[in-house]
Design brief:
By secondary structure, the chain is of the alpha/beta class. Helices cover 36% and strands 19% of the residues. It has one domain (25-244): 3-Layer(aba) Sandwich (Rossmann fold). It has helices spanning 25-38, 73-83, 95-101, 103-111, 152-155, 161-166, 182-200, 215-218, 222-236, and strands at residues 45-49, 64-67, 88-94, 117-122, 125-126, 132-133, 171-178, 205-211, 240-244. It is globular.
């Protein structure tokens, strides 16, 4: 058997990594790039990056990427896909962007079954602005805006995006992965690839949620953040496929 050569994906630029040490965005960027290369769709792919840490995506991907206002990537992606239906269009969003200010956009794009792919990075905090509470922050989790822990009667409950969207008739593939260990990384890549294939086959809306580490926002070391995601975050946000039709 010929050994596989580990090389930089063509869809990744040769540039310095500017995310915080231990951040999961770099892993996810590579997975998206690998899938795009393997599906041979680089020349017709358009990504949508919003406000937040996800905005830096176009510094790393070597294909067309448009920026959108905070929370609006599904609306921008809808417009691009409808005007250019032969393109492969995806959004790359964090939990503050997609599940807070962008809640209406993501729900209605999914409900209309827009033929787009959504990559949703869930690290439970607003990473770029130093770790305030996000819609996905766990009960009891301490953040800058919940210094004594999130309380349901004051702050509401964490929003389960996969569970929420999976009941909509317009969604075709909904899955949740993680990037905390090699097994999870491999599984998450398979979810991303299937989500893009759904779009290539004109099946409709797909979303892959990815549990990721934000050591800076969580005020943990990179190793502590990985352990916390695996031991705590996955309890409330179980991994797996939620819908595949």
């Amino acid at each position: 058997m010929t050994p596989t050569k580990f090389v930089k994906p063509k869809s990744l630029k040769q540039t310095h990594h500017n995310y915080c040490p231990g951040c999961g965005h770099g892993i996810i960027h590579r997975l998206v790039a690998e899938v795009i290369d393997e599906l041979n769709i680089r020349e017709k792919t358009i990504g949508i990056a919003p406000v937040g840490c996800a905005v830096f995506a176009y510094d790393y991907w070597d294909f067309d990427v448009s920026e959108a206002p905070h929370g609006r990537p599904p609306a921008v992606a809808t417009g691009i896909k409808r005007v250019l239906p032969d393109r492969i269009v995806f959004t790359y969003q964090g939990d503050g962007d997609l599940a807070a200010i962008g809640t209406a956009e993501i729900i209605h794009a999914a409900n209309r079954s827009e033929n787009i792919t959504v990559i949703f990075v869930n690290n439970t905090v607003y990473g770029m602005t130093s770790g305030q509470m996000a819609p996905t922050t766990l009960l009891g989790q301490k953040t800058l805006t919940t210094p004594y822990g999130r309380e349901a009667n004051r702050d509401g409950y964490p929003l389960k995006v996969c569970e929420l969207l999976s009941v909509l008739e317009g969604t075709k593939f909904i899955a949740r992965g993680a990037v905390t260990n090699p097994k999870n990384v491999i599984q998450t890549k398979s979810y991303i690839k299937k989500a893009f294939i759904k779009q290539i086959e004109n099946k409709g809306f797909s979303l892959v949620e990815i549990l990721s580490m934000c050591p800076s926002g969580l005020h943990m070391t990179p190793l502590e953040a990985v352990k916390w995601v695996e031991e705590e975050l996955t309890k409330f946000f179980p991994l797996g496929v939620y819908k595949d039709v």
